[in-house]
Amino acid sequence: RAKEIGRDAVQVFTFELADRAHEKLERQEELRRALAQTEFFLQYQPQMNLVTGRIFAVEALIRWRHPERGIVSPGEFIPLAEETGLIGPIGDWTLRTACRQNKAWQLSGLPPIVVSVNVSARQFQERDWVERVAAALEESGLEARYLELELTESLIMEDVQQAVETMHRLEQLGVHLAIDDFGTGYSSLSSLKRFPVGRLKIDRSFVQDLPGDSDDAAIATAVISLGHSLQLRVIAEGVETREQLDFLRDAGCDEIQGYHISRPIDAMALQALLCLSEC
Ligand code: C2E
Ligand code: MG
Ligand code: MG
Ligand code: MG
């Protein structure tokens, strides 16, 4: 009897595994199709300078318009894209699209802004990554200083030596670098000073309970002063309320991004928003 139950359990287990493997293969196939048929699109979220009130940059965020499932967010497909290596071509598409779009805004007469693009570890570690960035700039005609790349601490810490070298080559190209989700990783202070980055992005998890949560208030304040002592600008992400904005401004934070300013929006809507505030 025990043997029988055991056998059944094993059977259920293998069926489940096979099911899961099958589902993963299907998802992978779907991702490939999405890329081939351009089911991906970018939205752009404004970043505001807290002193001038100006929108000076936007973060490009990828979405997937799935034929049956509707709009799928990056959290649901970027991990699989990373696992399967599809992040290479998807990342290239994102980079090129963001550069081309930013150039198009400039050509339409808007004051130039920086477009910030998220980079996955696997992408960043590709041998020809710097050349791909250069190609995206060349092809779009966008000047390097209007592109920023967002790297995470964990990406950098996977191989600090290599990462610092690549970062220097990107710096030579003239693109800006930022550390995303700052505070959630574990980059040491001694390595931080070696990174040629211009900005730290305080992770949303430290912002959402401001100003009430005294731990988060202490962390946000500390990151701002750490950034400033290293001559870096500091931006807070996920700012949703006026109270959070006020706290961050009082704490000396340079810039903010979040629903309080705007959700991520389509290129057309962003153009209208910039035009309203600048034209
Ligand atoms: P992230 O780079 O930290 O991007 C910020 C995320 O916070 C975005 O989620 C954005 O929509 C969301 N957000 C912004 N303001 C607020 C706010 O006030 N409140 C709340 N609750 N959320 C806010 P999204 O677009 O779902 O992206 C999630 C993550 O997926 C990104 O985190 C980034 O790590 C990754 N990602 C997005 N686009 C790309 C891409 O093109 N390439 C790669 N490699 N990763 C990407
Ligand atoms: Mg980001
Ligand atoms: Mg972030
Ligand atoms: Mg992130």
From TrEMBL:
Residues 24-278 form the EAL domain. It comes from the Bacteria. This is EAL domain-containing protein. It comes from Shinella oryzae. The lineage of its organism: Bacteria, Pseudomonadati, Pseudomonadota, Alphaproteobacteria, Hyphomicrobiales. The chain holds residues 485 to 763 of 763 of the full protein.
